[in-house]
Amino acid sequence: MFKELTDEQWTAIRAACADPSDEVNWLRLRQRIDEAGRRYADAPGAIASAGFGPPFEARQEIGNALDLIHKLQEQLARLPPSVQEILPDPGLHGTEESLQVALVLNENLVAIMPSGNWNQFRNQLTSALIRIWDEEVGDLAFSKTRVENRPYGPLIDFLNHTVLAVTGKAPGPSGAAQSIEAYRKFGYVPLLNQKTGP
Question: Taking the model in full, what pTM does it have?
Fold first, then answer.
């Protein structure tokens, strides 16, 4: 079960980020990847132990909480830089990611339990990793080779290294690109996005 990145895994992930800019908070990036990985590893146990109540009611409450977080994030971003610098970290990123996990668990509990299909948890992990990249590293962009039309780029490499480190199986360039495109469209990676491998 995943606990944290090894130094070897972290070296590969950091190299995938390509830009050695001092603007990237490498310590925070590693911590957030570790947190996302542990949430994925703990997901099966969470299903067995967590009581989310009636799906519709829980979905409404979690959605309302996410809306409030997004509004607060937008409001904080509008503050003058001098004010932002002195404010302590409110911990909104971790809270938002936890609520996203709770939302997925609640909405897919009935579908997942009978079939043992854990693809939704993998997709939730991928969503969290793409969000982490967007907030900590750079744009949600990638390129394709001219002849083979094969996706490549720092974000593709980042997803392959991080998902492999947490789950033991990389999505491959095509799977990573499919997840990025889905995230750009929906804001998360839906259950139908299950492609793995090259």
Answer: 0.66
